[in-house]
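Problem statement: downstream parser choked on a complex file, so we are re-checking the raw output for the nicotinamide-adenine-dinucleotide run. The parser issue turned out to be on our end (a line-ending mismatch), but while we're here, posting the original submission so the record is complete.
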Amino acid sequence: MTTQVTTHGLLVGGVESPSASGRTFEVIDPATGRSIATVADAGPEDAAAALRAAHDAAPGWAATPARERSRILRRAFDALVARTEEFAALITAEMGKPLADSRGEVAYGAGFLEWFAEEAVRINGRNTPAPSGNGRILVTHEPVGLCYAVTPWNFPLAMITRKVGPALAAGNTMIVKPAEATPLTALLMGRLFVEAGLPEGVLSILPCSDPTAVSDTVFADPGLRKVTFTGSTAVGRKLLARAADGVLRTSMELGGNAPFIVFGDADLDAAVDGAMAAKMRNGGQACTAANRFLVENTVRAEFVERLTARIAALRTGAGAEPGVDVGPLITDKQRANVAALVAEAVADGARVTTGGHELAGDGYFYAPTVLDDVPASSRIVRDEIFGPVAAIRGFDTEAEAIERANDTEYGLASYFYTNDLQRTMRVAAGIKSGMVGVNRGIISDPAAPFGGVKWSGLGSEGGSEGIEEYLVTKYVALPAV
Ligand code: NAD
């Protein structure tokens, strides 16, 4: 089959254009390893143009009535939903996930535009009498200012809408630097906003092959007020250090190492369904993916047997093919990383019950895998796997399960299955993570605050908390009358 290679410009000031340097880079389909598009490669001059456009647009956008900002977000939401198939096909082409997962991402990503269209008109303050009797306390919330968003490849649409939605709703301008692997979805989303009536310059999209060149220019601008990042903890640390120079507001959505606990009293059918969703959605390439299965030893053999049967039956292949459950990994390097984690776990004493090997062919495929008896000391228990591998170990008591769940530097998502209400309350309180799923394998919701603790990050995206990240608080001391 011949692949049609398309060419795309970057988006600055509402206009798509080549990069100032004229350089381009290739977008690779991970299912074939072949180029599917050529994209303008933004550099310092393009970043400077985006900064100028953002500064020019800022006063007008901040002064635009909230109702009008809300309507633009709503139009973008409606257009995104109407174009679900187009966006889903593009996500699958550049990122690899099966079409059903891509459609799910479009619905999830659009949900942030809908939610923040509703939040835009509810940015309220307060006006209270000072308890001293000495005047009144007026509190208002204003846009934080120019925001810089750096986003990952694993959810090429939703990780951007969950930043763009609240930033625009709050009256800010934003420059987005999408991941090198997935610039096409970001650009299409940027064009959708232009069509929805977003004024020029409010939102720019700067795809680039070298993230530091664009970032250096943006960070050097004294008008930058906020950096919002989703990606690895290692890069998050670097951006936090950069943000310190400008004393910037930051939101950091970083790596995870989610425990998935199955207690002996759980509904095992539901637990296996939840495990499939928490582990295999996006081929395991999700920050919320279950990374460590902890199963009470009384039910472990049965759980392993049932999960193995379900995972062995998954169909791996190009995401665009009908009936495919698991797509490729994003790069050959990421596949090699998954293979190394599995090989080390096996050398440490883990037992492969299905999979455990790469799949032949052009793309970056790895067989869906289950490992049982994974020792606590194995690297696969500490590191983010980011692939279709379920690593299981047993436990005997609730206290042991909580202790093992918390034995990580990360604290993003966690999951547990039990039918005991008292235990539900104890374990939900005992687990140190920003999000806890109870008898559920999928927890993400635009209306809920998404975020981690410890090395998993700072701040929340989504929910009513999500817009607060893009506002600053002002106190006006009013005189007594
Ligand atoms: P990554 O950290 O390698 O890259 C993320 C982004 O940072 C990309 O746009 C990349 O170009 C950019 N970047 C890399 N180095 C940079 C630098 N020096 N300066 C400026 N920008 C730089 O992460 P990834 O591989 O794209 O994504 C996977 C990671 O993202 C995983 O760790 C996953 O857990 C995490 N993630 C977290 C969440 C969350 O909400 N907590 C959601 C999705 C993914």
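For whoever reads this later: The chain is about 40% helix and 20% strand.
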